[in-house]
Amino acid sequence: MISQIGSIAISLAGGLIFSSFIFLCLYKLRNDKTYLDISERSILSTCYCIFLAFFCLLNELLISNFNLQYVAQYTSYETPTFYKVTALWAGQAGSLLFWSFITSLFTVIYIFETLKKMENLKFNSYLILTFIFSFFIILSSFIANPFEPVSSDIVVQNGNGLNPLLQNFFMAIHPPILYVGFTGCTIIFVMAMAASISKNVSFDWVRSIRRWSLIVWTFLSAGIILGGYWAYNELGWGGYWAWDPVENSSLMPWLTLTAFIHSSMIQEKRGMLKKWNILLATSTYLLVVLGTFITRSGVISSVHSFTAENLGPLFFTFLSVLILYTVFWFLRRKTYLETDDKIDSFTSREGGFLYNNLILILMCFTIMWGTLFPILSEAWDGEKIYVGQSYFNQLNVPIGLVLLFLMGIGPLLSWKSTSYKVLRKNFLIPMSTSFLVGSLYFIFSVKYNFYVLVAIMGVSFTLSSILGEYYKSLKKFRKRNSNIIIATYKMFMSNRHQNGGYLVHIGIVLLFIGFIGRAFESEKEFSLSPGEQIYFNNYIFKLNSIKSEARDNHYAFMSDIDVIDDKNKLLTNLKPEKRIYFYWNSDPEKRQPHSELDIYSTIQKDVYSIFSAYDAEKNLGYFKIMINPLVNWVWIGGILMVVGSLFAFWPNRIRR
Fold it and tell me: How far apart are the C-alpha atoms of 571 and 581, rounded to whole Å?
């Protein structure tokens, strides 16, 4: 019964969104605001129907209704309740409904909060939202219906269960957070297009869309960091970023949105870069749709991707229509978006933001080209040519290092123009610190690496630049408050947008510290029987035992490894496992092996252990140990980025 209600809700949402389009046409023909209001109610009703369908599917997953194809495919009786909830976005049909659910939430907020203040954006906003909703409702109704029943001649005794790789807390929360970022880009696209078509790219519009962008950027950043953390802790390859096509699909809109947030500040302060900002805002959503096409079309292979080739042509058509619509209206409004003000000096803060934008777009282009090249090569001559990590590293490492320095240069520049005297004064300490730290690395390094040298100098330069700006502000507040804690608090609260932005930049600098550690990684694969030990990287790894245990939804082989340091002291005890999900299934092909790794983590390095395989006849375990320096700085930097963006987004109190 509940599943039938959910299916009806999706169908009803389709009818309502179609009626919204009809009423919008009537409003355009008769110029009667009543039709616009009815269209608004139709869109809101569509959102409420999607809410209902979403909760109906959640109910069916929780009660294990295996009469539904989706429930039988992604859950089982043994699946823990928490992961039954996360099965909502584990498959194609559920994730598309979840996508529509989040879009509906944002749409309701957009209608009641933003459009209430900008009523002249309503018509074009509703028109674009109607088209976007129509597409996703068609997919959920006819292509990937989560309420599709199993075949009538099949009785499902138990479901397949959730993929073991997805039975991880961080993977459970990573997709919904990332989806919030992706779907939030819909509102940014709608606002940008509606404003340009309506010729209302005003100061209030800039401030409003910038706030939306900060919210979306926060979720995108958190989703990307959580995805890296999941990959590092669950996939067992010892890394957190592999330039996988699906990873790249989330990074590309993040780059353009980052560029938009920076350049929108110039428009807010100087009224400049209207065309550029419209392009960045619309391109962000177009890149989201492009990434969705790559993920869901089956044209690439990835541990993150869905495989459904029948969705490929539909998403490609959807993307093509959006691109044509965007280009058409951009060309129509090109004259309106032009501004008289120009950048006065290349040594101005506006110039620094522009350089920053160009580097971000260059990085986005190199990633997009490398991601799409296998698809394009196959379309050209039928042969798919894959682009490896070396391509992305060779191009993006130097680009990223330039970006690192630019983050430190920006705060040292003044608006409109920066005199030579001010440049020399502002750059003296950061440059001196950078050269001093770089010289120390060059002199004392055991393993010299040019990129590491440049990265260390960039980290030193940018950190000293940002901390120097904090110190200057703090000195002003110390004159009024002798208590340094109160002065620091008031300094941070005085300009949340700027200080939050600086926190984000410090977070990115900490990310680069973590990236530096990748140049010093080491690993070793070996086999041990209980009682044996091996020496590697100044550590002794001693295997104490291998035990086995039957658990609720898997069978586990558990190892016990002592790690002894160079002072012959016990550093830690590692317990990596080799798990077999569906171990009791009579069909060996349905058994799912999985390595549950164990990590000893410190601020300096991680000792990363993987139980690769177990030979029961010989009582022999096969292991892989990796020593990964500075990894925790990546997670610390990611947390600080999110905290900084929330701090920047949080509105200042209005003084009355």
Answer: 32
Determine, yes or no, domain membership for 543: yes
Please list the residues that pair with 574 across neighbouring strands: 561
Of the candidates 622, 627, 620, 619, which has an alpha carbon nearest to the alpha carbon of residue 610? Answer: 622
Cβ atoms 578, 597 nearer than 8 A: no
Overall average pLDDT of the 496-523 stretch? 93
User: Once rounded to an integer, what is the mean pLDDT over residues 443-464?
Assistant: 92
* Type of residue numbered 296: R
Q: 167, 196, 222 — which closes off a domain?
A: 167
Would you call 612 exposed, middle or buried from its count of C-beta atoms within 10 A (0-12, 13-18, 19+)? middle
Cβ neighbours, 10 Å, residue 442: 12
C-alpha to C-alpha distances, 526 to 498, 544, 625, nearest whole angstrom: 51, 15, 8
The model's pLDDT over 116-150, given as tens digits with 9 standing for 90+, comes to 999 999 999 999 999 999 999 999 999 999 999 98
The answer on pLDDT for 481 being more than 90 is no
3-class DSSP state of 253: helix
What distance, in Å, lies between the first and last C-alpha atoms of the chain?
55
**Beta strands at 570-574 and 554-564: parallel, antiparallel or unpaired:** antiparallel
Give the distance between the most distant pair of CA atoms in the chain.
Answer: 86
Of the pLDDT bands very low, low, confident and very high (cuts 50, 70, 90), residue 110 is very high
Nearest of 309, 193, 178 to residue 246 by alpha carbon = 178
What lies within 8 Å, CB to CB, of 552 at 6+ separation is 78, 80
Instruction: Tell me the three-class secondary structure of 205-238, residue by residue.
Output: HHHHHHHHHHHHHHHHHHHHHHHHHHHHHHHCCC
Label residue 444 by pLDDT band (50, 70, 90). Answer: confident
* Final residue before a domain boundary, out of 112, 132, 167: 167
Could you tell me the residue range of the domain that residue 12 belongs to? 1-152+160-167
Among 335-339, 384-388, 548-552, whose mean pLDDT is lowest? Answer: 384-388
606 belongs to a structural domain:
yes
DSSP-based three-state secondary structure for 655: coil
In a domain, 446, yes or no: no
Buried b (16+ CB within 10 A) or exposed e, 135-145: bbbebbeeebb
Angle between helical axes of 169-198 and 274-296 (0-180°, round to 10): 140
Backbone angles phi, psi at 59, to 5 degrees: -60, -45
Q: Which residues have CB under 8 Å from 422's CB, separation 6+?
A: 414
Summary mean pLDDT of the chain: 90
pTM: 0.93
What does the pLDDT average to over 346-360? 89
Task: Give per-residue pLDDT as tens, 310-327.
Answer: 788 899 999 999 999 999
Residue 655: per-residue pLDDT: 41
Overall number of domains in the chain: 2
Higher pLDDT, 9 or 594: 9
Establish if 623 belongs to a structural domain: yes
Three-state DSSP at 522 gives: strand
Question: Which residues, 6+ apart, have CB-to-CB distance to 3 below 8 Å?
Answer: 56, 57, 60, 65, 67, 68, 147, 149
Residue with tokens 């800039």: 206
Collapsing DSSP to helix, strand or coil, 241 comes out as coil
Strands 592-596, 577-581: pairing is: antiparallel
Confidence of residue 90 (pLDDT cuts 50, 70, 90): confident
Residue 134's CB is within 10 A of a number of other CB atoms, namely 18
